[in-house]
Amino acid sequence: MKLATWNVNSLKVRLPQVIDWLEANQPDMLCLQETKLLDENFPQSEIASIGYQSIFIGQKTYNGVAILSKQKGSEIVTAMPSFDDEQRRVIAATYEDIRVVSIYVPNGDNVESSKYEYKLKWLLALNRWLQQELKNHKKLVLMGDFNIAPEDRDVYDPKMWEGKVLCSEPERMAFNELLNLGFTDSFRLFEQPEKSYTWWDYRMMAFRLNRGLRIDHILLNNELARACAACVVDKTTRKLERPSDHAPVMVELSM
DNA sequence: ATGGTAGAGGATCTA
């Protein structure tokens, strides 16, 4: 079984790339972030035509998340309970016995910003919600755009980024507190290429110079971590015409 | 000189 996550930065623009990628990689589920589409505009039929079901929750211009899957999902949730949020950043569903929680964590802008406060509150609410989800589901995967680079090795220039948003200690602590609930960062279960990242700024030739950060993650609970056979970042999408600034991440589970 | 690029939407806001 293959599970993937990809911040597409507008599904309208990236739909042809998403369809090509699904056909080439055949994941069982693909979580999308930053669809930037109202639900009425979601390209459900185009995605269905290649054999994938869609669940989604979107809004105009910003945010928006979806899960595309070969099998039908159940117990669909489109927001965190007990966290009032106008922004569409969460979608979860159960596929057979696997609970999939797909998230788009707020960016935070900068550590002085009120958006940063919102990010930390959002992460606290996520932690609390997942404690419940872990109790209710034996197999759980949490994946998406976390907007957090967990360690210095996930950052092309750790000194320049020290204390900055995406790398600050409170954010990294929030990430570690998620791990402490009983999750494993699937990417670090395996030998990986040096300087592996999932996001590169569009500006300043960042991708060409591999000035990136690893901020998109697939976290597996213990039951699924035991079954994990691979985790890879697919950089090839970042080389396409009109790419997303993020690359997809995919895990393979032996089950 | 707080720059630069992309997306949405139609001036800025977000990332």
Write a structural description.
This protein is an alpha+beta fold and 255 residues long. Helices cover 25% and strands 27% of the residues. The chain is built from 6 helices and 14 strands. The chain has helices spanning 11-25, 44-48, 114-136, 158-161, 169-180, 222-225, and strands at residues 2-7, 29-33, 53-57, 65-69, 74-77, 90-95, 98-104, 139-145, 183-185, 199-200, 212-213, 216-221, 228-233, 249-253. The strands form 3 sheets. It has a 6-stranded mixed β-sheet. Strand 3 (53-57) and strand 4 form a beta hairpin. Helix 3 (114-136) packs parallel to helix 5 (169-180). It is globular, with a radius of gyration of 17 Å. The N and C termini lie close together (6 Å). The structure holds one DNA strand of 15 nucleotides.
What labels describe this entry?
six-stranded mixed beta sheet, DNA-binding, 255 residues, 6 helices, globular
